[in-house]
Amino acid sequence: MNRLFEELGIIKNQLLLEREEVLSTLLLGIYDKEKKQANLITIGAGLICVAIEKIYEYEQDDKPDYLGYHLSEDFNNWFESQNQKLILTNVVDLSISTDGIFTFKQFDNKEYEKIEEEQIVEYFLIDSKWYNQKICLIKSC
Question: Which of 31, 72, 113, 119 is least enclosed by beta carbons within 10 angstroms?
């Protein structure tokens, strides 16, 4: 994370980017398969789903605290102040998503079954019906 923080600051300066041009949600996770442990951080608004047991939703009232706001700060101080960090154990099924998961909508003029917002998480992150299947989410597949 420290390296990403430094590199993003360097790239921002090299490309003469404005702060607004490096603002984005970041969900970063490291999974230890042997220990079945996941260390995760969500910067901005996002969603972490652990099997069907627990959903962690980070909603920041449309004012996400993006990494880009803090590139001139000391990394260690910034990182220690983050409260959207998780260490999860006994993880066998894990999904992560930005809050963009709630923006799915009809992409053509066909009739579709209406899916309520709360069902979107169930459909994309929990339902195992399509597990191990090749799924195409774009029209040209």
Answer: 113
